[in-house]
Task: inverse folding
């Protein structure tokens, strides 16, 4: 799965550069251990909310890479029929309640999903992925309080990649992420977010506890994005991170670390199978139809209401 | 049966909760039933469905969205209309957009109820807004019932609807009582109601102003025949019914208790001017541009639309009826 997420992002980066993906993406490269580790600890019935940097979470929860890629390309074969794009990719059939373009928005939505599951008497845990930037969104802090007060089965996963776009977390977050969770009485752990197995194991413990009625958990996964905040950044020559810092974190790349744990030969086998899968995904996505402009208002209302057009005749 | 507006909202919530186990209610002080519509719900349906929330509007609104996305049918009560400003992100940028952004995978059957929108004497600047136009502009289904039976019927339909709906219960309509001799029933969203038929002028009145429009229409009956048109749902608006009314009258006045620029009054006038039969320039009576309701009672009333303004607007169409006894052919 690590290889799939990395390969998917590399493929998508290529399609951004060639102009086939409009608007660019927020690449997940470098942070794969978090999405893959957490989702490996989830059961099929569990749910997630994701972020603007969401491809890793969506794939790790089981979405079809071909349909995710078609979504990035704005095609009708996409997960969201080309209506959502990179920042809103969702697959409700797999409990993926959507990537979300607003920082911190997914936290309280996950709390609602957790409340809903409990109210319906279902055994489901909800996971909210968010970045260090979201730690300063009031709604996220409010949602920690609600989850703790009501002992809801939700796991908060803070992917601390060190920067809210360009602003270092060190200059933005007073106290600490885990300290904030602990202040609400939520058990919180700091995890090496470059180590897939460490993330999986910490997430598994929190999910088990939440599912057993033990209330919410909080993980701060220390990680790093190897690419820019957004693909546009490549053109902008920004200097908020030093090349040395990027190189230091690249040395912690989660992929070789995970590959080293595999039996000899298996990594190469997995690489080959992923390459084949992504080749097929690319073919599917590029062959998928573009939606026709007269269907631009379709799906705006769940009851099928068609609003007035913006012009007459 | 004598039915009050607040009791009608309470009945609608009770009946919806009883009819569908997915319906639940979130809000502040709803366990105690402080605003009225949720009175006794906690006793009957329990804390699993009637959820008294801390003062965290953004989180509990997002939570309700999460619940709506996963099979629940939440209602949120906001005791103060300006709390809607706090959750504009949640309602407009999240709830409203999920259906389109997910390509139709997701629906957000969420109802927001504001029992006491607009001015309540003495509540001043931050508790007296009437922001229905913002939601109509954003494309969130928006309902402003004028009477108890409409409040019951429209709230039931809002809860049953698969999309987010905001229901504004104007504070000035809460004292209205109605004698009901029939079974209360849902009323479809998007259907207007003609409260009084007329042939000279159509008055589109929003919410509590329906009652003012009816009083003025009665009073001016010797001079002109006024049709009182209550849109009931501001979005989607019942344009077909308005077109039919203007076919009869050809003259239009809108009375709307919200700010003038980009208000629902502006939309009604624009649409009528573009698409419908008008024999005279249409008029609108609204709050002023950018209105903030001042505290002093006389100032508060001065910025709200009132009957004198409606009378003047109607009379400005000129004498439309001959004095009593005179032969109109002469």
Result:
């Amino acid at each position: 799965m690590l290889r799939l997420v990395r390969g998917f992002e590399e493929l998508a980066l290529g399609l951004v550069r060639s102009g086939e993906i409009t608007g660019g993406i927020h690449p997940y490269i470098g942070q794969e251990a978090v999405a893959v580790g957490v989702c490996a600890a989830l059961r099929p019935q569990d749910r997630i909310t994701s972020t603007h940097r969401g491809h890793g979470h969506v794939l790790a929860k089981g979405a079809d890479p071909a349909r995710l890629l078609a979504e990035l390309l704005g095609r009708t074969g996409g997960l969201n029929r080309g209506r959502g794009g990179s920042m809103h990719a969702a697959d409700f059939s797999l409990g993926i309640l959507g990537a979300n373009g607003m920082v911190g928005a997914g936290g309280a939505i996950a709390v609602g999903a957790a409340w809903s599951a409990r109210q319906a008497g279902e055994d489901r845990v909800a996971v909210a992925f968010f970045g260090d930037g979201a730690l300063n969104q009031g709604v996220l802090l409010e949602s920690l309080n609600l989850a703790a007060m009501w002992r809801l089965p939700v796991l908060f996963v803070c992917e601390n990649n060190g920067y809210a776009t360009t602003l270092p977390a060190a200059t933005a977050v007073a106290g600490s992420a885990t300290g904030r969770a602990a202040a609400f009485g939520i058990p919180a752990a700091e995890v090496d977010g470059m180590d897939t197995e460490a993330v999986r194991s910490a997430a598994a413990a929190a999910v088990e506890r939440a599912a057993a009625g033990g209330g919410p958990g909080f993980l701060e996964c220390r990680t790093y994005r190897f690419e820019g905040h957004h693909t546009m950044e490549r053109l902008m020559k920004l200097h908020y991170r030093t090349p040395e810092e990027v190189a230091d974190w690249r040395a912690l790349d989660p992929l070789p670390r995970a590959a080293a744990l595999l039996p000899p030969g298996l990594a190469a086998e997995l690489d080959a199978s992923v390459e084949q899968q992504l080749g097929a995904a690319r073919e599917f996505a590029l062959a998928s139809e573009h939606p026709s402009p007269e269907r631009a208002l379709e799906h705006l209302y769940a009851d099928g209401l068609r609003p007035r057009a913006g012009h007459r005749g | 049966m004598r039915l009050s507006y607040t009791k009608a909202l309470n009945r609608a919530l009770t009946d919806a909760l009883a009819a569908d186990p997915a319906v639940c209610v979130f809000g502040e002080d709803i366990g105690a039933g402080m605003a009225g519509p949720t009175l006794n719900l906690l006793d009957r349906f329990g804390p699993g469905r009637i959820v008294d929330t801390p003062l965290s509007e953004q989180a509990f609104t997002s939570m309700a969205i999460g619940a709506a996305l996963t099979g629940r049918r939440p209602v949120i009560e906001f005791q103060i209309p300006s709390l809607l400003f706090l959750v504009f992100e949640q309602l407009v940028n999240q709830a409203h957009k999920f259906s389109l952004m997910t390509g139709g995978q997701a629906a957000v059957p969420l109802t927001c109820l504001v029992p006491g929108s607009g001015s309540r004497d003495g509540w001043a600047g931050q508790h007296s807004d009437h922001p229905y136009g913002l939601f109509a502009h954003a494309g969130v289904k928006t309902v402003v019932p004028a009477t108890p039976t409409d409040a019951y019927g429209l709230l039931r339909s809002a809860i049953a609807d698969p999309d987010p709906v905001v229901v504004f219960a104007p504070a000035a309509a809460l004292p209205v009582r109605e004698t009901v001799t029939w079974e209360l029933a849902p009323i479809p969203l998007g259907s207007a109601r003609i409260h009084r038929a007329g042939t000279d002028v159509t008055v589109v009145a929003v919410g509590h102003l329906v009652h003012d429009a009816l009083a003025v229409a009665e009073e001016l009956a010797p001079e002109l025949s006024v049709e009182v048109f209550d849109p009931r749902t501001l979005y989607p608006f019942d344009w077909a019914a308005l077109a039919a009314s203007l076919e009869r009258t050809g003259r239009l006045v809108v009375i709307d208790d919200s700010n003038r620029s980009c208000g629902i009054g502006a939309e009604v006038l624009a649409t009528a001017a573009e698409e419908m039969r008008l024999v005279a320039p249409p008029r609108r009576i609204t709050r002023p541009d950018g209105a903030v309701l001042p505290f002093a009672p006389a100032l508060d009333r001065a910025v709200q639309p009132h009957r004198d303004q409606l009378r003047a607007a109607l009379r400005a169409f000129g004498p439309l009826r001959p004095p009593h006894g005179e032969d109109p052919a002469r």
